[in-house]
Structure formats: structure tokens, C-alpha cells
Amino acid sequence: MISFNKSPVTANSIKYIQDALVRKTGGDGSYTKKCTEWLREKCGASHTLLTTSCSHALDMAAHLCEIEPGDEVIMPSFTFSSTANAFVGCGAKIVFVDIRPDTMNINENLIEDAITDRTRVIVPMHYAGVACEMDCIMDIAQKYKLKVVEDAAHAIVSEYNGKPLGSFGEFGCLSFHDTKNFSMGEGGALLIRDPEWIARAEIMREKGTDRSRFFRGEIDKYSWVDWGSSYVPSDINAAYLWSQLEIADEMTGKRLSNWRLYYKALSPLADRGVIQLPYVPKGCVHNGHLFYIKVADYNEQIRLIRFLKEHNVYSVFHYVPLHSSKAGQLFSRFHGEDVYTTRESRRIVRLPMWNGLTEENIGLVVDMVYDYYM
Q1: What DSSP line would sit under 266-305, residue for residue?
Q2: Which of 10, 11, 199, 254 is deepest in the core (most CB within 10 A)?
Q3: What is the 8-class DSSP label of residue 109?
Q4: Can you name the CATH fold of 248-372?
Q5: Is residue 275 predicted with pLDDT exceeding 90?
Q6: How many CA atoms lie within 13 A of 171 on its CB side?
Q7: Whole-angstrom Cα distance, residue 171 to residue 190?
Q8: In what order do the strands lie in the sheet with 47-51?
Q9: How far apart are CA 177 and CA 80, in angstroms?
Q10: What mean pLDDT is reported for the chain?
């Protein structure tokens, strides 16, 4: 079986985890500091906070945006539930707009028409590590005095016009889930653009206390000062992450090499019009997060996934559009027409992509795709 995903294990993974067990198993130890500094440097944020998940980074961002009941937040429906949950938890109404069929990202040209006097935030999600049209989105946000929270769960080290994704909006949210380019097993990070938000973000992350200031020696005692929760990951998780970040360029290079192998090998099928391959717009530098193909329709999506599984290749679909879900019907509305969101989501087949995937593995996956279309 060629797995869809496998957890990355580097030469130093076990060593660093064992070291963390001796040094400090709780939060904000030496490995957390190493990861935080690396992220601050690479992601272009004024401050970075390692969190227990990207979902929790999004929760923090929603609270920092001071979302209140009745506020509206614009985002694509083609995303994970966490993107919406963070704002629903603050009482917001989610307003979905359609996606672009080429990148599967939010259609930047539909955002402005969805804005009302209740709109507070725009949430672009960078699908597959390929950037949304951030210049346009930031112009709209500035025009209407809206905040931008980037769901950059797929997009670590990806860029838009030379600038790291996650650094455009007030906040950027990264994922270090087991399926992502770099993993903590479960984990994430909040990127903060403007220093004015740092103090409150630290408080939220530390259960609503000013404990971070206490540890820095700035106050004699810490106490409960604001809303918060337990968003500080164990240094054991950070040690695992650091074993990957220290060789991030090498891992990203290998991932992109595999992405290109898939693209080249499957191009003849795309040339025949049998499938479609991913599109990367000019000015976007992606990170090879995932490789997908688009097939004719939903029935073919199911048949191909089943065929590959029968031949020991594990592939998957991706998001079921949120507006069609039970919770989506309760907490959201779709502005305009769903031209592409549902149709295109039912065409995606994600092929195996993980650190350690070999050229031979990719060759076998490609052979099975060709066998299906014989």
C-alpha cells in the first residue's frame, strides 16, 4: 500500500524529543523558542506564537479581531471547518463567496459585492499552498476598513510576489498537523503582523493570564486578566517540529521535486483532456503541499479513488463545501451563485504526497492512474 500520508521522521527527531523529555516537557521551552524564532524570520511576522493547532490559532485571531454576535466574516466555502468555527464561536455569521476554478481559492472579484455594514473580516485560505490574490484582497480590506486573517494552513514558506503568505493580514494561521509539510503531530502557529496585538495574544494563549510577562521577569506575580484558553503546546511537540524546520529547505525541495514529477508524468493525460492539473499563477511560489488532479465529475472522482485503493494506492477527495453542511446551513449564507465551489470540489482527487515519498512510489501511483484511463 502506498499511503496517502506518513509522519516525517528526520535524523534528529528522536534525539530532540528525548532531549525535551529531560529538559522540559511543558510549554515554551528551548525548542519552542527555536521554532518561534525560525518562523518569525521565515514568515515575515513581527511576532509568532506556537499553538496547539491551527484551529486554535484561528480561534485566537477571531478573538483578537474582536468579533461580536451579528458581525459578518467573508471566506470561501471550500475550506476546512476550523476556518469558519473560529468566527462562529464568537457569534459571527459566515458569508461564503464562490471560488476561482483555476486555483480553488476565494474569487477576489466577488468579495466586494458581499460586504455589508456588518462585515468585519475577510479570510482568504491559500489552497494547496498557492496564494490568493492578496494585493486585491488587501486593497478591498483597506477600502472598507476590514481586517484580514489568512488561513495559511497549507502555505508555510509559500510566497505571493516575493512576500511570505501569512504576513499580509493582521494575522496568519499556520498548521503543523500530521498531514502538513512540517509536523508537530498536532500543532500550529499564529503570525502577528502588528506589534500592538502581541500582548493580548500572549495573554489569550496563556489561559487569559499574564504568565508570559511573569516568566520574562516583568512582573512579580501573574493573574487572570482577559479571556483565554490553553493554547501552549508541549516542548516535546516543538522538539519534533524543530527536527524538520532545521532542514526545511531540503524537505521543501524534495517535496517540490515530487510535485514536479507528478506534473510531468501526468501531463499527457491533461493534454488529452482526460484530467486537469494544478495551476500556479505568475508571482506565486508554492511549497508542494499537496498534488491533486481534477477528473470529469463526482462519479469519476469516486470511481478513481476506489480503483486506486483496490490497487494499493490511497488517494482522497478534499473538502465538502461548508455551505452544504448541516452546520453551514445554521451559521452561514452563500452570497451570489455557487458556480464553481461545489462542482470543482467534486472533481478533486488528491494523490499521495509526504516527506519520504520516493520516485518509485510516484511512478507506481502514476501507472495506476494511467491504467484507470486505459
Answers
A1: HHHHHHTTS-B-----TTEE-----EEEE-SSHHHHHHHH
A2: 10
A3: G
A4: Aspartate Aminotransferase, domain 1 (3.90.1150)
A5: yes
A6: 29
A7: 7
A8: 47-51, 188-192, 171-175, 147-151, 119-122, 72-76, 93-97, 332-334
A9: 13
A10: 97
Mean pLDDT confidence for 332-352: 98
Pairing verdict, β 188-192 and 47-51:
antiparallel
- Backbone phi, psi, residue 209, to 5°: -110, 165
| CA–CA dist 283, 286 (Å, integer) | 10
Cα–chain center distance at 90:
21
Look at residues 97, 113, 116 and name the one whose alpha carbon lies nearest to residue 105: 97
Residue 322's SS3 state is helix
In the chain, which residue ranges form alpha helices assigned H by DSSP? 13-23, 30-43, 54-64, 81-88, 111-114, 134-144, 198-205, 211-215, 235-245, 248-271, 298-310, 326-331, 341-345, 359-372
Rounded to an integer, what distance in angstroms lies between the CA atom of residue 173 and that of residue 156?
A: 9
Task: Supply the pLDDT for residue 219.
Answer: 92
- CA nearest neighbour of 197 among 45, 75, 332, 86: 45
- Asked if 201 and 272 touch (Cβ cutoff 8 Å), the reply is no
Q: Which CATH architecture has domain 13-245?
A: 3-Layer(aba) Sandwich (3.40)
Look at residue 24 in the predicted model and tell me its pLDDT. 87
Which tens digits make up the pLDDT trace of 235-268? 999 999 999 999 999 999 999 999 999 999 999 9
Read off the pLDDT of residues 93-147 as tens digits, 9 standing for 90 and up. 999 999 999 999 999 999 999 999 999 999 999 999 999 999 999 999 999 999 9
Query: What angle separates helix 198-205 from helix 54-64, to the nearest 10 degrees?
Result: 130
CA 336 to chain centroid: 25
For the cut 90, the answer to whether the pLDDT of residue 155 exceeds it is yes
Domain residues of the chain, as ranges?
13-245, 248-372
Distance of alpha carbon 137 from alpha carbon 122, whole angstroms: 8
What the block records as the C-alpha cell of 136 is 486585491
- Per DSSP, what are the bridge partners of residue 332? 94
Average pLDDT over residues 65-86: 98
The CA distances from residue 328 to 13, 41, 291, 342, in Å, are: 39, 37, 27, 14
